[in-house]
């Protein structure tokens, strides 16, 4: 379990590097760091449990049980906090994404990240393609279209025009 959590934490940190322009708050990577720390603690607790079992130590097994109960309480608490603050995180991320979309010009680093995000997640805009109609890029191009990264990958000759939403 500790090895699995370590992998998940490392994967999240690695993935975070691709989306760090959207998550401007550097504490967004904190959950991944916590996951890795929990993996290390789980490994140590597992060793304590194994050693206590092999030695048939009542004190060691009692300590193991107490640690497991504390971890269970911490997990329930983390779940409750995550559930309570989920809407705040959602609105914060959407606000940051909208500001990055506003900076889109097709050339700057934020534009590259927006294109990458839309291609990888197979999406267009923050909620849908109509989000592009309020951006400075959309108004400056004057061709009533969204970036080509909004196009479905299996559609050939997609122009990104809003009069063909089935291609987006």
From TrEMBL:
GO terms for cellular component: plasma membrane. Keywords: Membrane, Transmembrane, Transmembrane helix. InterPro entries: Tetraspanin/Peripherin (IPR018499), Tetraspanin_EC2_sf (IPR008952). It is a multi-pass membrane protein. Pfam families: Tetraspanin. SUPFAM superfamilies: Tetraspanin (SSF48652). It is found in: Membrane. Its main location: membrane. The chain crosses the membrane at residues 28-54, 61-85. This is TSN36 protein. It comes from Onychorhynchus coronatus (Royal flycatcher). The lineage of its organism: Eukaryota, Metazoa, Chordata, Craniata, Vertebrata. The gene is Tspan36.
